[in-house]
Amino acid sequence: MKTLGIETSCDETAIAIYDSENGIIGESVHSQMQIHAEYGGVVPELASRDHCSKIVNVLHDALGDIKLNSIDQIAYTSGPGLLGALLIGESFAQGLSTALNIPLISVNHLEGHLMSPMMEFDELDMPFICLLVSGGHSMIVDVKEKGDYEILGQSQDDAVGEAFDKVAKMLDLQYPGGPHIENLAKKGKSNTFDFPRPMINSNDLNMSLSGLKTSVLYTIQKIENMDDQIKCDIAASFQQAVVDVLIAKIKKAVDQTGRSDVIIAGGVAANQFLREEFKKLENQLNINVYYPHMKYCGDNAAMIAFVGSKMLSKVNDHSSKVRARWPLDELE
Ligand code: KG4
Ligand code: ZN
Description:
The structure is a single chain. This protein is α/β, with parallel strands linked by helices. The protein has 11 helices and 10 strands. Helices cover 40% and strands 19% of the residues. Zinc ion binds next to helix 4.
């Protein structure tokens, strides 16, 4: 069975085809990064317009030689995300499902992220713990079974990716800042600045990034002669503080739930330093740590097609399902 997935929740226009026998057989992602970079963040109207003008080309690119009439069902992201952007994906999905007379499935974007490593690792099965760290979300989820997700903790303020982006902006780096911070950090010393690790010892699994970010800001403001090496040291010290907090919370989550598989997903999971540090937990805690393939850390449609393929095909009623906010523990 072939499921065509559509993702337009933020600044990537993506389409992929998941075949239940052969896995992902076609995919294409168009990133709007260049459009938003000069504004330092995603501009919703520009995002919607660009989805609109690129989505047909992305479809052709994803399909390649695959015939459109061989698709069995359409899955699309209906939230959470930017409403205007989601509506472009939804109306495109509705058009395709109507023209092809095939079922339409609405998928939660976060569920896509947390199931993404399952596309690749056959041995990985639920239950597991997921640390989902992206530009808009930072949470620890107990993934019990398909559709049954308990949020064990989350950021009380900035998302982890958002904190990376804001610190990058303070250092005059381009949006999105995560990869730039990671690159600078490679040349920096992580113990140069002793940034705070907010809530690291709190009894719960919640996190807070805003105090850390503000501490970085005050540190930068006090430096009179900023140079490249100091920037690298700030990046490395900041990145270390973030990873320390995330590791402490995951240790607590493993202890609390007794789960033996942990997956790290979302855009920030592309960070190699974070990957290496979490890998060290495998021996320490006797657990397995999984990451999505690098190309499936950020937003993509493969994960949406994959989740759709696991859902029962429903005949669509063509009502609009999009929502800006759609918590993982409120899937119906
Ligand atoms: O999952 P994603 O592509 O989009 C959202 O759903 O938010 O995540 C994007 C976020 C951005 O904040 C970006 O700076 C961050 O992921 N990111 C990184 C890295 N690559 C992307 N953060 C740290 N290190 C990276 N290598
Ligand atoms: Zn995402």
